[in-house]
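Reopening this one. Same input as before:
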Amino acid sequence: MDLRRLLHPRTVAVVGATDRDGSYAGQTLLNLEAAGFPGQVWGVNPGREEVYGRPCFPSLSDLPAAPDAVVVAIPAPGVAAVIEQAGALGCGGAVVFGAGFGEVAAGADALGDVAGAARSVGADHERALRDAALRHDLPVCGPNGNGIVALHERAALWGDALRPLEAGRVALVSQSGNLAVNALTARRGLRLHTVVSFGNAVALDAAEWVRHLAGEERVGSIALYLEAEGNGARLCEALARCAEEGIGVAVLKAGSSAAGSAAAAAHTGAVAGDQRVFRALVEEAGAAWAADPHELLELAKALAVPRPRQAHGGGGLAVLTCSGGDSALAADEAERLELPLAELEARTLRRVAGLVPAAATVANPLDYTALIWGEEDALRDIVAAVADDPRVAQVVVVYDQPAGIEGAPERSWTAVREGILAGAAATGTPVMVASTLPELLDDDAAARFAAAGVPAVAGLRTGLACAAALGRPAADPARLREIAAAARRAVSGAALRFFAEHQAKDLLRRAGVPVAEGRVVDGEDDAVAALAELGGNVAVKLAAPSLRHKSDVGALVLDVRAENDLRAAHRRLAALALDGGAVIVERMAEPGEELFVAARTDAVVPCLVVGAGGVWTELLADAAVIPLPAASDRVEDAIRGLRAAPLFTGGRGRPPLDVGAAARLAAAAGEALLDTGLELLELNPVLVNERGAVAVDAVAAGRRRA
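Same output, byte for byte:
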């Protein structure tokens, strides 16, 4: 859909126009007036000729022209008809404030039959609204949202009260209306470009807003708040466009949705639930993951500031404060975030020592003390000296400014601010500032820093999180589009079908995944023949589509060597008589460390999961999640990044194992998932030793029509 007219309107119609206090329609008219919207504004209300000095018309078809933006502020039953008319007239788009749509249906589910009627009616209203919008290819924001504020256009299609705002570079796309309302009232140097509160997203999901805003002039970053993942392929395409346009992205995702039934039946749901998969996608896109609304806005604000590229690739962080306590806290937080502090060169230490008082601690973090507070030239030279160290990739300066200071104190704080800015201007290394407490970042000072290319962040902990985000490498748009293609390939359907172990392993063998050698046997005599074929010692297993944890029912006998023992094992397992069950005999795999490998398609995008295997899988939850497709070198990096990595790489005197073989096996399993249309593959354990890797157990499930 083309969103240009909706986001850059020259004419606006407010359906349901009224001057009733507290009404969304009336507040929208007041907001457009207060914002100084330069275009035409019309009311639509058959019972009024004018509202707040704006002319009113009986219907959209009576307007002088088809408006670029239609604000619909009437009860849910009448909305679909208005959208139908707007689409037929060729309007540019619509904002629907009202509730009473799909959110009623969702909320009523927990109330049982009492809410059945409301559930049905709300769903019907939303379906009719969606159908009308899609029939006419009409962009609709909402329903059950707060609308759109396009600050550079002075277009406030917004039903809540607004204060005057200065336009900036941060776009906010929010499924929550209240988060958007709060962002518009924030005083932290946040300068917004566009705010979209999209609510139920009947015709446009978050990904489509992000994709369009990435191409808007003067957008530097996008803050994205979601309660549902939406369409994974579209989200990947939107994030790819952000990467191409150099747009920073910060994401806050509420809630951890339950893993799909297939994953929950095995281990994958516990090890890598949907929230972890979504986060893996966000990080793959080079976006910043926020822990709360405050961090979301601060990350987006920092990402929006045009900055020099890091002059010293691979270097660490330097922190400058005027307090020993702040220095210690910053060092602790950097360690928690695994954000390496640069070890300053000796010449830098000597240079800084000549600039600070004798009481200063010349180290990193650097406590230059309050003795030189307000000395602009000294602060300039200190910032420049540290930033020029080849080992420093970025600098964070701790800066607090209380509200309401005047006179000499205000001049002192101004000198500090200007000293920091002068130091930042004198170096090619990125510099940012962070207050110790969020409320100690002055709004005007923060805007002044940002205008000079120095991000200013409210709160020390958040500041270091922003420093970590700013130091991440840019995303690869081509990689994101590969993930989008894999998401489109993922199969969905009705009933979920699990395969027996031998069926899963046959599939894996055909896909080139190393699995334990063996076969299904037909009776005791054939089992004995299999023992002779395989030689040595074998494992005897019962396999059935319904059997996924063999040890729970005694369906596994290991290290069988003698014919009599084999016959006894076969008789016992065959007697379990599971539906569709078969006895398989496999050569015992060479011992090794256990790795967990799984792949699934039922999350926001298909993904591969690797982690510590065997009994440690759920206990440690030590797993890496990689969106598919996943190349073997990427998987190897993930294995080496596990907490359990020393088990595989030779920690504490152990011999290093063939991690490359394990990575190739896992990558092949991911490809097999995509190529065969399965929804779940789980290999647990994969035994990894010095000579290779092999899967000794396998679970597979796919979709088929009921």
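So the earlier flakiness isn't reproducible anymore. For the record, The two ends are 35 Å apart (CA to CA).
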